[in-house]
Task: structure prediction
Amino acid sequence: MSEPIPHAVHRKLARAVGRAVTDFGMIEEGDRIMVAVSGGKDSYTMLHLLRELARKAPVRFTLHAVNVDQGHPGFPAERLTSYMTREGYDFRMVREDTYTIVKEKIPEGKTYCSLCSRLRRGILYRVAHELECNVIALGHHRDDVLQTLLLNLMFAGQLAAMPPKLAGDGGALRVIRPLVYAAEEEIQAFSDAQGFPILPCDLCGSQSDLQRKIVGEMISDWERKRPGTKAIMLAALQNVRPSHLLDRRLWSALGLEVAPAEPVDSEDARDAERAERALIPGARLVRGASLDDDASTA
Ligand code: SF4
Result:
């Protein structure tokens, strides 16, 4: 008999977080982790899963949930506060009216998000120091990572997604993203099942980031047409072949003079084969070749 979906989803998400934390050494003994909670499904899920991890992980760390009330009209702060109290989280609500600043600085009709999130980041860094936290956890998930990858590729001329771990505030803080392997639809299902008290995210009146929306819809469309596309895209980010990119600095940093020979029978090659078949049914694999290797024109 199959397991009820929420349990299966819960287990998958817990595994995804455990794997990301391990793969990138996100958490160390004695860490004080400030968890940025916006009141959306992602940050509630992250907080919940990190608490479970803290209870069973071999390293000891503590969690300190923080929300920034940015002064958006009608922000239901008490909904978040009462949830945190009920759940027994160490929680702080920080009130800073960035909304007025953003409204003043950004012309009517333009999106506020860039300035708004920069101001929020500055506040989070400051509060982390006040709480003596050395780590900040952010709730970006797999779908955010994939959207950022395509946005950078198509609009910024860069091949970059989101770092799972980075040095923030000039190296004074470690910023981690424990949900980088977690699928948004599973987070949504988990959040629905848990009944998290979601706060509305449109109180600022800003238009959402149009390009991100377009790219997100594009990826979802691919996923609908070829289920598994998002998983393959995520796998690609974990299977980078620098010698097949054209970044001279990367070649130089890796000391490359020619592209190294491909492994023919490795697990990597089998993964590539599976990925290729999933994307292009009936495609013939050229051993050791990527999707964009064109043996016929060599
Ligand atoms: S959607 Fe609103 S609250 Fe969120 S970053 Fe943009 S301006 Fe700020």
